[in-house]
Write the structure tokens for this entry.
Amino acid sequence: MTTSHIAPPAPAPGTGERDPRGWVAPAIATALMVLLGPLALLFGGLSVMATDSCGPDHCSAALDTALAWIDGMMRIGGPLSGVALFTAWLLPWTRRWSAARVWFCLGALVPPLAVLYLALTLPAP
């Protein structure tokens, strides 16, 4: 009697291997969030004072639009940024998830960077 041995198929590359550098992107994003988060809150909160010289009713439409974007990014983008960073830390530490981990980390940095950009480039009242 002969027995035939059939080898199981080889796993696809990058599906089950542990990623030794999987912690790098979330760690960098967390360090940047520690710096950018309070700055975004500070400048975003102080940006409302741009209406002091023109009053809330006589300001330009561009300034009102920029302030509305800042307010929206702080209200919605802040929690989304936290969720994205938390998700980046919780993804499995395999090579399969390394690209998604990097994208979540980059997505977590977008709201504070957008608030800083909008606050530092406010149009004239």
In short: The radius of gyration is 23 Å. The chain has a mean pLDDT of 89.
